[in-house]
Design brief:
Blueprint: H1 7-10, H2 12-19, E1 24-25, E2 27-32, E3 38-43, E4 47-50, E5 55-61, H3 66-73, E6 75-80, H4 86-93, E7 105-107, E8 113-115, E9 120-132, E10 135-147, E11 154-157, E12 160-163, H5 164-175
Antiparallel strand pairs: 1-11, 2-3, 2-6, 4-5, 5-10, 6-9, 7-8, 9-10, 11-12
Length: 179
């Protein structure tokens, strides 16, 4: 068995380039502050953890200003963005003071923002936050969830946005040599 490569010798750019070939969903994680103002961020790391008890998780950069709001509230909602919601993703990724300006939403059963036009949402209470490398792993217990539409999801792949059907069509075109 050959020795494992030293992670430092891989280089950050190569690491990001290779992992960029793994498509990820685009999920808005939302909460509200004690004054009722909405807060949120975009992640590409939302996943299920356990069926019993029902747990989900996501990763967030240690520099996130939104994580403290989630911790203070003790709850969050994961909103699966639809293929036509790239502008919403960009808005919620901005460093602006008010990321929710022009973003329509309604409160979830726990009071978290459920964005208009999404594919599905998962409402959670915060269970645990674990520091891992330059990120935090955030684990939530599912309180409620719903499918909102049959739209295709927004994806992030090779450094750009797309939706499931557009990405699948492009892949098929390449496989049969049409593109």
């Amino acid at each position: 068995m050959s020795p494992l490569p030293d992670p430092v010798s891989m280089g950050a750019r190569r690491f990001r380039d290779v992992l960029g070939h793994f498509p990820t969903s685009v999920v808005a994680i939302t909460t509200t502050a004690s004054d009722g103002r909405p807060h949120g961020l975009i992640v590409g790391t939302f996943t299920s953890v356990s069926l019993e008890p029902p747990l989900v998780s996501f990763l967030v950069n240690r520099t996130s200003s939104t994580l403290s709001m989630i911790q203070e509230a003790g709850r969050f909602c994961a909103n699966a963005l639809a293929g036509n919601q790239e502008p919403t993703s960009r808005r919620l990724s901005a460093r602006d003071a008010d990321r929710f300006e022009g973003v329509a939403w309604s409160p979830s059963p726990l009071g978290n923002p459920v964005l208009d036009g999404i594919v599905a949402w998962v409402d959670c209470t915060l269970v645990q936050v674990v520091e891992i490398g330059d990120h935090y792993l955030v684990v939530g217990r599912v309180s409620d969830l719903n499918i909102e539409s049959v739209r295709t999801p927004l994806l992030f792949f090779r450094g750009g946005y797309g939706d499931y059907l557009a990405s699948a069509t492009l892949l098929m075109d390449r496989l049969v040599g049409w593109w």
